[in-house]
Amino acid sequence: MTKLKSLMFAAILSTVSTAALAADPLDIAFTVHSGASNTFWQAVQKGYEDACAKVAATCQMVYVQTDGSAQEQVANMEAAIARKPTALITSIVDNTAFDDVIKRARDAGIIVIASNVDDLEGAAGNARQAFIGQGFVPAGYSLGKAQSANFPKEGPIRVLMGVSAPGQNWSEARAKGVLNFMDDYIKANPDRDIKYERIDSGTDLAVVSDRVGAYLLAHPDTNAYFDTGFWHAGVARVLADRKIAPGKVLLGGFDLVPEVLEQMKAGYVQVQVDQQPYMQGFMPVMEIYLAKTAGLAPSDIDTGQGIVTPDMVDGIMEKSAMGIR
Amino acid sequence: MRRLLKLALLKPELAATLLLLLLVLFFQIKSNMIFLTYDNLRGMLGFLPEVGLVAVGVTLLMICGEFDLSVGSVFALMPMTMAVLMVADWGFWPATGVGLLLSAFIGFLNGWITIKFEIPSFITTLGMLFMARSLTVVVSGGFPPRLNMDNIPEHLFISYVGPYDMFRASFLWFVGVALVVGFLLAKTNFGNWVRATGGFLPAAEAMGIPTNKVKIICFMICSVLAGFAGLIQVLRLGSPLPSIGEGMELQAVAAAVIGGTSLYGGIGSVLGGIIGAMLIRVIDNGMVMAQVNSNWFKFAVGALTIFAVVGNSWLRKRGRAMKVETKQ
Questions:
Q1: What residues in B contact A241, CB-CB < 8 Å?
Q2: pLDDT value at A75 more than 70
Q3: Residue B325's pLDDT band (cuts 50, 70, 90)
Q4: Residue A119 in contact with residue A92, Cβ under 8 Å?
Q5: Crossing angle of helices A277-294/A39-54, nearest 10°?
Q6: What is the pLDDT of residues A241-292, one digit of tens each?
Q7: Cα torsion for B99, B101, B102, B106, to the nearest 10°?
Q8: Which end of chain A, N or C, is less packed with Cβ atoms under 10 Å?
Q9: Taking the CA atoms of chain B, what radius of gyration do you get in angstroms?
Q10: Residue A5: CB partners within 8 Å, gap ≥ 6?
Q11: Cα–Cα distance between A5 and B184 in angstroms, integer?
């Protein structure tokens, strides 16, 4: 009898929760500043869709046609808000352009969570409720610090900082983090001749390799190149073409994509920062679910400043093939 | 002598050639004589075939009086198709064949829709730009497949060849293609048809030139060259990213225009398109070498585009105004 009661209770509970979900399914829109062709975002989308499937939410991911176009993204947000979704997840690549639209969404009772990129002023910058992503400046600092272990122990040091998308929060903030570290490193080593330079490196493998390749020729004393994305994989090809041994010019950057993992295995890339894009898609949906079902307030999650080194590559490659990393 | 000077001034690519020479000299001096070093030239010559092949196709099409804004997307779609098929155990050649056929089909569609519905090719190919880019992402599932370079005949496309390993094999393909297209344009009936179709369409039709066929063939050549260029880049970088070639369409149009191709059709040369593409690469590379603030890159390309076209127009006017005695 007890067994029968338990079974009946479980059946009722499952019917109620299914009915509740069916009566008020979550409707979520995710607007981003990237085009669909950026490999990084496919892992975010996979996390987002997996999470949506788990809570039976209706979800849509909206890319822009022109990579990095804030106005296009704002237009997409306006369109998403017009259909009154439960929640809006968005990247915030500009400190002011999104303020008004986010405020209107909040006023309309829509949950707004920032993912991947936040206003540089954080919660004070606009009305979003939480940020789930990497702290770019600390991540840049961590990258610089991790790579500095490979710097020559004596003599002058020249570092090149490739800013992939000048003017965009994510790229500028990462570069700032690396350069903050470099400033501290210079202060900690007052007797050494240490210089760094910034360059507009671009977001195309071929262009980045050509530009950085030219810089390395003009400055053969360059010890390290930092990229604010994963495009230093192209620079690794240039070094290999010029028969420059791995480690002669240290390479490091952000995000794990197959090209970078291969160059890490080859020894050309020593350090990479992983921001766990799958989590940036998955966790906002979970926070929205908890906010709607349990009234829990969305809160910030730092998805990581995980330093990845070549010895970790094999395990990551397996996950990468599954679209999770 | 005066006659030769007049002929030279009337050449559409003259201004760009002069500008190129001046810039090379400028960057060589500004970079403390590093710009023309072996390694830098080798790097630039490795990249040139990729932008150059696209510029050749776009130039041909612009001479024919049409535009193709979808070249950057076809540049990505062709190698992605090949890579996905190779991951599915297709051989390199069949997979490449399918990729090139797909490129040709996109070119055919661009031409057919433009002609059949009498809409500007600017619009048709703008639509195709988005469609082909989207297909690239769909085909790859968003995650670029890994190319197994062991199954690819690298020596035919990307290995270094020539004296001191100065060029990649792709450079030979580029020169070969440029010569063939240049020959077609300068020495064959087809070339005359292309110029006539782009120069003054009603007259070309009245003369019995199959203008529709000519246009469709030019669209197809342009698309196939863009796809082939994309293949070369992917083999060189070893990575079929779905984002490659973004913005390339505008660079290719800029290269053609800098090289003296008329936006209204009928005037232009393959050599001009190549010189235009070289100019853009030289500016990009030279500014890094010369330590110019990189925030000025796009400004420089834009200013030089205007400067080259104004220069071209001025030189041609001077050429036309120059009086030459004619022998009776």
A1: 42-43, 46
A2: yes
A3: low
A4: yes
A5: 30
A6: 899 999 999 999 998 888 898 899 999 999 999 888 999 999 999 999 999 9
A7: 140
A8: N
A9: 20
A10: none
A11: 86
Whether the predicted pLDDT of B4 surpasses 80? no
| For range A120-146, the mean pLDDT | 92
Query: A89 with A28: CB under 8 angstroms?
Result: yes
Average pLDDT of the residues of chain B: 89
- B182-208, pLDDT tens digit by residue? 999 999 999 999 999 999 999 999 999
CA distance A215 to A239: 12
Given a contact cutoff of 8 angstroms between Cβ atoms, the answer to whether A143 and A109 are in contact is no
pLDDT tens digits for range B13-49: 888 888 899 999 999 998 888 899 988 888 888 889 9
Q: Decide if B200 contacts B47 (C-beta within 8 A).
A: no
CA–CA dist B20, B282 (Å, integer): 8
Of how many residues is chain A composed? 325
CA separation for the pair A161, A224 (Å, rounded)? 9
**Nearest in space to A201 (alpha carbons), one of A251, A249, A164, A159:** A164
Phi-psi sector, A267: left (phi>0), alpha (psi -120 to 50), beta: left
Taking 50 as the threshold, does the pLDDT of residue A12 lie above it?
A: no
For B71-148, strand residue ranges (E) read none
Alpha-carbon span A123 to A208, nearest angstrom? 34
Looking at the partner chain, which of A210, A217, A234 has a beta carbon nearest the beta carbon of B37? A217
Is the minimum CB–CB distance between A4 and chain B shorter than 8 Å? no
What is d(CA B208, CA B210) in angstroms, rounded to the nearest whole number? Answer: 6
Would you call A45 and B297 a contact, using CB atoms and an 8 Å cutoff? Answer: no
For A123-188, the DSSP string reads GGTSS-SEEEE--HHHHHHHHHHHHHTTS-SSS-EEEEEEESSTT-HHHHHHHHHHHHHHHHHHHH
Q: Residue B317: what residue type?
A: K
pTM of the model: 0.80
Asked if pLDDT for residue A49 goes beyond 90, the answer is yes
- A39–B142: do the CB atoms touch at under 8 Å? yes
How buried is residue A101: exposed, middle or buried, by Cβ count under 10 Å (0-12/13-18/19+)? buried
Above 0.85 for ipTM, yes or no? Answer: no
